[in-house]
């Protein structure tokens, strides 16, 4: 006679149910993909970061060459607009808030994740608005691209960085909307992780550009 723990002869083996993938609710690991998928996403964002770095290095190198070849003393140093320092502080605080949100997500605290992530997203939007105001301020004070090579390179570098910020900010907004409007749907961790990595990269890139503006442009 078959027992409760041993199947009878000729019957199929018992099937042990597997735990569901991911965790629902407010768990910090909801929507986690396999490690290979995460590594692929991280590799893709690293390739994009390398390409962006090469672009900025090429522009900065061209700026150094142009300054060395300045004819008739046509290179005039630009004053740093005061608002640019506030924009820098906003971007730094945004990066800190995004990283705190990432840590809260890993710890399983959805409320703290939403709070920090939304704060970082709002500060990133403030940075973009502040950059637009800075450009307008310089134009109103006579700093045009055609009159001064230093002004031209300033506009090129800041606008190229802002274009990258627009794309990264769109990713932050996407994550914010997913967590706010659809809290019951598990968030793909890869999207959150690569968004944070690229946002930190743009933060570091901006600090390098600020140093270039202060000491060289």
Briefly note the structural class of the backbone: mainly alpha
Number of helices: 5
Radius of gyration: 25 Å
Largest sheet: none
Helix percent reads 55-70%
What is the CATH first-level class name? Mainly Alpha
Assembly status: single chain
Report on this model:
With 217 residues, the chain is an all-alpha fold. It has one domain (36-215): Four Helix Bundle (Hemerythrin (Met), subunit A), CATH 1.20.120.80. The chain contains five helices and no strands. The protein has helices at 35-68, 82-107, 110-140, 149-181, 189-215. Helix 1 packs parallel to helix 5 (189-215) and helix 3 (110-140) packs antiparallel against helix 4. The longest helix has 34 residues, at 35-68. It is elongated and about 60 Å long.
Helices and strands in order:
Layout: H1 35-68, H2 82-107, H3 110-140, H4 149-181, H5 189-215
Helix pairs in contact: 1-4, 1-5, 2-3, 2-5, 3-4, 4-5
Name the descriptors.
217 residues, mainly alpha, Four Helix Bundle (Hemerythrin (Met), subunit A)
In short:
The chain is built from five helices and no strands. By secondary structure, the protein is mainly α.
